[in-house]
């Protein structure tokens, strides 16, 4: 019945109205349909092409419905209005909604028909919080890796609590790095260390050989001279 109503309404609109008016009505209704689709949550939690198809369906239904209704009103007048109202009231969507409202919601019904679909629960499930290792259990190389990984996690943190926790974790890693090698840690800081920087460039370098003083060099040269003579 809905298809027949749509075909008759569109035919009446095309015969009674200028083509430009019909196109304008369809475009306007399509925009309204897109806006309505954005305000109604998707029970299936679709994304990508499926979500785009849902928006397109709303737009096409709105455009087709409005043009058909206008066509029936132009041709049928009051009779067309009554037919439109009858079709809307007897549509499957309206009837199904009325039946669901009239159905008693007993505890056994609630258990049998949860308000959230299983796929919705699955898509909403997220992994638990990351447990960051204690600084005193890591080597210098592991501390450097943890420092960089925690920065990435800090950029992706969704709540103030997560950010505060990561700031505390990173402070512990900094203290541990300074404890392992305070000299090279200071070199890293004075070089313009950044939150996203890699301290491994300074803290994983092999220690520089000890420099000999002038007195040590003179004494060694004197010993070599005595041995040669």
Automatic annotation (TrEMBL):
Transmembrane segments: 66-95
Region (Disordered): 99-119, 203-229
Keywords, sorted A to Z: Membrane, Transmembrane, Transmembrane helix
Protein name: Uncharacterized protein
């Amino acid at each position: 019945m809905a298809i027949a109503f749509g075909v008759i309404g569109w035919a009446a609109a095309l015969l009674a109205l200028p083509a430009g008016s019909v196109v304008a009505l369809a475009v306007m209704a399509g925009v309204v349909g897109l806006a309505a689709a954005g305000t109604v949550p998707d029970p299936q939690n679709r994304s990508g092409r499926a979500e785009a198809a849902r928006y397109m369906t709303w737009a096409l239904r709105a455009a087709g419905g409005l043009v058909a209704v206008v066509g029936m009103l132009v041709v049928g007048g009051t009779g067309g209005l009554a037919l439109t109202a009858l079709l809307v009231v007897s549509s499957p969507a309206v009837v199904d909604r009325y039946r669901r409202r009239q159905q008693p919601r007993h505890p056994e019904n609630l258990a049998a028909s949860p308000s959230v679909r299983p796929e919705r629960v699955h898509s909403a499930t997220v992994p638990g919080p990351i447990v960051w290792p204690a600084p005193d259990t890591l080597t210098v190389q592991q501390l450097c890796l943890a420092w960089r990984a925690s920065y990435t996690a800090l950029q992706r943190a969704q709540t103030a609590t997560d950010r505060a926790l990561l700031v505390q974790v990173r402070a512990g890693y900094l203290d541990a790095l300074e404890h392992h090698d305070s000299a090279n840690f200071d070199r890293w800081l004075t070089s313009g260390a950044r939150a996203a920087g890699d301290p491994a460039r300074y803290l994983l370098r092999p220690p520089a050989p000890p420099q000999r003083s002038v007195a040590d060099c003179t004494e060694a040269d004197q010993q070599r001279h005595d041995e040669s003579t």
